[in-house]
Amino acid sequence: MKRRLSRIGALTAAGLASCILATAAMPEMARANDGYDLWLAPSAAGTAVPDVKILSDSPTLRIAGDELRRDLKAPALPVVLAKADDPALASLRLATAGMGTEGYLIRPATIAGRPSLLVTGRTDTAVLYGAFAVIRAQRTGADLAQLNVASAPKVKLRVLNHWDNLDGSVERGYAGQSLWDWWTLPDFKDPRYTDYARANASLGINGVVLNNVNAKPESLSAAYIAKAAALAEVFRPWGIKVYLSARFSAPIELGGLKTADPLDPQVAAWWQAKSAEIYRAIPDFGGFLVKANSEGQPGPRDYHRSHAEGANMLAAAVAPHGGVVMWRAFVYAETDPDDRAKQAYTEFRPLDGKFADNVLVQVKNGAIDFQPREPFHPLFGAMPRTPMMLELQITKEYLGFATHLAYLGPLFTEVLDADTRTRGKGSTVAKVVDGALDGHDLSGMAGVANLGRDRDWSGSTFNQANWYAFGRLAWNPALSADVIAREWAEQTFGADPRVVDAATSMMMESREALVDYTGPLGLAHLMDTGHHYGPGPWVDDLARPEWNPTYYHKADRNGIGFDRTRTGSNAIAQYAPAVARRLADPRTTPEEQLLWFHHLPWDWKMHSGRTLWEQMVDRYDRGVTTVERMQAQWRDVKGLVDEERWNKTAVYLEIQVKEARWWRDASLAYWMSVNGLSLPAGSAAPAHELAWYKAQRFPLAPGQAH
Ligand code: GCV
After folding, report:
1. Among the options 369, 456, 490, 659, which is catalytic?
2. Active-site residue flag, 218
3. Element housing 227 (H / E)
4. Interval 118-157: pLDDT, tens
5. In what order do the strands lie in the sheet with 79-83?
6. Would you say 381 and 575 are in contact if contact means Cβ atoms under 8 Å apart?
7. Among the options 85, 167, 295, 654, which is catalytic?
8. Which of 3, 13, 299, 630 could pair covalently with 506 via S-S, beta carbons 3.0-4.6 A apart?
């Protein structure tokens, strides 16, 4: 039997109870599970509808109540949901000052003479977040009677960026077509939009950029504003705002103007009128996300204006309505001969202090492009007068698409925990991003969504964990990847410790394994062209130098790696002196970043005593054996996880093992062709000649740009 427990309309409590009873009668693992319900699938054990009271009525509080009634096993205490200023709570003298507008408080309290579990916050949305926190607590084994939690988000804008095109395709999407059926909107509101909002709200995600940063002007046309408004209406009770990616040249394409020069009064007036039109349709519209003068997109530089001048013109248009502009710093140009890793810093750092108050500069975690491992972007900490929004990629463009199991929690926390040293020790990226380091109220984290119309949303069960981890870290960047992995596994697979332990251990090893088999020791950008699927370290014939993998690894007979010290591009000088000093010397550079910063001879002695070449081979081998171990761990839980999700994961792991070997073999075959060395004893020869790997073509690989 296929279960579909999505929210189609409001399920009645009685209907729910009978549904729970029916499913509870079946052995847990016999039921098929296509993953649609994510980490929110109701636990089968609940048999009684819990006593949940809402003290005042609103669509959001009603949702919060429904969620608890639907998901909670009846707790010993009745649960009371109320806004903190509700007169019934006056005698409790709640300390709400530090809660902000989204923080919640959960604690035992006597309300109207009854011992209860109170869930409260200053706004309806805060109470909804609290309700989800109660559900999470119960699913992860907490005793609700003892629950006493106060939690407020550290980051203000917690936003998914959809790279969804208006034709339904998704750039770098590996989970099917776009969730948004633009064609049938605004009339048809697919129930799935509600399910999507629910999943986001359960994590505290409070914003959604609907369309690709490679934006079409039509997304700002009246017809598409109406479609966006329909989605905004669905998302609103879940505390989620809608944003749009704006094409900078829209005044020309949509407005018929001759220019998009940000200093032209007609252009500014066009954006003001467009913003007013959007706000009439979507009163709580969040604002614009802009990719300008990057990879062919138009922008202010086309008119010899700065990024700040471009951003501020848009910011002025949305400011009267309370909107923001998220202006991306992902810029590099083939006309600039300097190291690509330096270009965004060079362009943006001088603009610090020049952006309007409602602009955030959105910066990818690393200076190149979402590689499996990159050092933190040097812009973090370098623009203290500007709110810096962190952009992470949840979809796995460079990390094995949908099929490879690569849990991104460790990647996300690695960058959040990185110490920029810009204000002394402890100046972590997390503190830059949450605004604490430089005293910004406005702060944000964006995740490029991995979502599509696949039944399991993300292309695989384990990819759901990356959506989950993004949301949890955006709420609290101090959480550990390990804790999040376990918490997700418990809610996704149930409480059986054998499954939870196996899943957590697989997840925690997986990203490092992927780094090992695709590009160890600080190597990056070694993938094949365009689609970015599979190895292509040999590619050296693309039009723009910085699109070629050979640009990044610089391997020759004598050595390998990109010299970013003073003898090379001197990119290290973009970091604070304490960081730059450490990176200047290969002996003090973290080994996992070695070849990002240094060009070294193949026989360079590593800390292990091995040569660099031996260590590289060891890492490639380790990557493959780790994935084989993950596969064995999954085999051990066969029968403990429902068959549908177990099977799909098992097959994906087979694909991953095959492709890890392919990456390893192709890379080693290529490196050997360059360095003339042989493999250390015990390391297997590649399965094919280098020519075979070079001949592989994947013109139809998914996710390519249109
Ligand atoms: C949306 C990389 C990706 C592009 C993406 C771009 C960006 O270059 O390959 O698909 O475009 O980053 O972040 O703007």
Report:
1. 369
2. no
3. helix 222-235
4. 999 999 999 999 999 999 999 999 999 899 999 999 999 9
5. 52-54, 79-83, 114-121, 104-111, 149-151
6. no
7. 295
8. 630
